[in-house]
Amino acid sequence: MRNPRQGTARRGRDRRARVLPAPPGADRVVGPPPSVAVVGAGIAGLAAATALAERGVAVTVYEKRTCLGGRVGGWPTGLSDGTTVTMSRGFHAFFRQYYNLRGLLRRTDPGLERLTALPDYPLLNADGLHDSFRHLPRTPPLSALGFVALSPTFRPADLRAVNVRAALPLLDVRVPQVYDDLDGTSAQAFLDAVCFPEKARHLAFEVFSRSFFADPRELSAAEMALMFHIYFLGSAEGLLFDVPRAPFPAALWDPLAGYLARHHADVRTGTAVEYIAPTEQGHFVVATACDERRHDGVVLALDGAGLRSLVARCPQLGDAPWRERIARLRTAPPFLVSRLWLDRPVAADRPGFLGTSGFGSLDNISVLDRYENEAARWSARTGGSVVELHAYAVPPAAARDVEEKRLLGQLHRVYPETGRAAIVDARHEWHEDCPLFPPGGYADRPTVRTPHPRLVVAGDMVRTGLPVALMERAATSGFLAANALLEQWGVRGQTLWTVPDRGRNALHRALATRRRTPMKHRPGTGLPHRVPGAGQ
Question: What is the C-alpha to C-alpha distance for residues 536 and 534, in angstroms, rounded to an integer?
């Protein structure tokens, strides 16, 4: 068994990373503190609550679940062998580009000692091809060129067929302009236009679309291009990542809850907000099943479904166009996480994380006892292993028991030794609450600010105008929401960092500029075409 503390989370920061200073102001609130309700205690809500509480705002966090962390939360469960363990919604990678999320975690872990680096991001195709990011240079464009040169998936004949001109927008991704250029096109249509090699497509692009729990046909090409920028051509941090050494509550959220308590924040778990109503005096009444409280500001840090539901119940929030946009937010297809406690170990050379392609619905496999201390202790005591399987974008009508069995069969195909293992216990988590970013949907996504100056929105579905995604978008939007409120009270907010907001290479930018033109879309295809008379 490997030592789960084998790695060290690298601190580093790209020398071209972009800094966004907060608007100037006082260090803390002067006089009686304003009161803010933060609705939702996922990453976005916790980031907002932290920035506000640190500056003297009276913060109340409302969370309907009994645990913190939202989709990165965890809760106790008892196994059939009598062991109490922590279950979660599955593996999350903390990439080095997640500057603002990692900054949030540094409040209680300045050296990020509770994270550990996995040595590689290996990928396996069903035809036996293996890919790795371990030995690639981190600096773009050498990172992308190195991947192409070293990967067995990229064949010379396939590369010669690539439509280089169609791919040029990837060389200089800018936010929010990338949404003007590509949001009306699906990721699938864009890759078809590029003629990208089919096998290489999954490794270089679809891995990102699957990170959004979406089929490439249902994902905006702009969102996929943004991910390509963040990880390949826009950042020198590379594609390696860190993971928590302990389950999410112990490693991340319990320490942060203590930090918030020391800053006098009131964190109310197991407390759902039933409605919110603005008052004529400019305050907000926030009602739960237990009581009503009056607040000077509100941060809505809910997932898309939760935001839709709450806004629908609160007809006085926002104006009609804003409410209509919220009502049109869509949710990604269901996903399945199966965690298995096996009575024998997987082979010693199995990595902590493996991305897969061509194995039916199986998208990746994690061996938790390779890096997580709780799983490692169970493995050491029993001689078994703890394995987790992910299936993203499962068809909504799929039979759950059938999909769970299929996922297990795919595990046996990838790791044959698991076919001889008995399952001591299993947990299957089905969820359907991740945001969907469909082609043409960017304009409907909420921004941090709303028609009411003291009602703000945070979450990974929020338009920030910055090159961030997934957990980092959640953390960034939470800080932006706090900054929007603090600015009104004359208080300096949180300084933020992002990867560069444009292509790093001058030649690439020049090539992409020549290709960048206004885009319209062919009816019925989702494919872009050039506007007549547009520049070449």
Answer: 7
**Cβ atoms of 323 and 511 closer than 8 Å:** no
360 assigned to some structural domain: no
Any domain includes 306: yes
Q: What is the CATH number of the domain that holds 489?
A: 3.50.50.60
Is the same domain home to 154 and 233? Answer: yes
Contact 365, 123 (CB under 8 A): no
Burial class (CB in 10 A: 0-12, 13-18, 19+), 156: exposed
Together in a domain, 224 and 155: yes
Q: What is the DSSP string of 433-470?
A: -SB---TT-GGGSPBSB-SSTTEEE-STTSB-SSS--H
The Cα–Cα gap between 79 and 107 comes to 33
pLDDT band at 5 (very low <50, low <70, confident <90, very high): very low
Task: Give the residue among 392, 326, 340 at the shortest CA–CA distance from 369.
Answer: 340
Contact criterion met (CB below 8 Å) for 265 and 172:
no
CB count within 10 Å of CB 520 equals 12
Could you write out the DSSP letters of every residue in 184-240?
Answer: TSBHHHHHHHHT--HHHHIIIIIHHHHHTT--GGGSBHHHHHHHHIIIIIS-SS-S-
Q: Is the peptide bond before 141 cis (omega within 30 degrees of 0)?
A: yes
User: What is the C-alpha separation between 362 and 392, in angstroms, rounded?
Assistant: 8
Contact 188, 196 (CB under 8 A): no
| Average pLDDT for 28-46 | 97
The string of pLDDT tens digits covering residues 107-163 is 999 999 999 999 888 888 888 878 777 766 677 766 766 666 666 776 777 677 888
CA distances from 502 to 205, 299, 482, 510 (A): 19, 30, 26, 12
What ranges in 55-98 are assigned the alpha helix state H? none
Residues 140 and 231 in one domain: yes
| N- to C-terminal Cα separation, the chain | 58
Contact by Cβ (8 Å): 500, 18 = yes
Same domain, 140 and 235: yes
Residue 358 CB coordination number (10 Å): 14
- Span 256-286, pLDDT tens digits: 999 999 999 999 999 999 999 999 999 999 9
pLDDT digits (tens, 9 = 90+) for 381-430: 999 999 999 999 899 999 999 999 999 999 999 999 999 999 999 999 99
CA proximity to 295, closest of 282, 280, 305: 282
Phi (first) and psi of residue 511, to 5 degrees: -65, -45
pTM for this structure?
0.91
- Domain span at residue 67 reads 18-71+246-329+442-498
**What single letter denotes the amino acid at residue 408?**
L
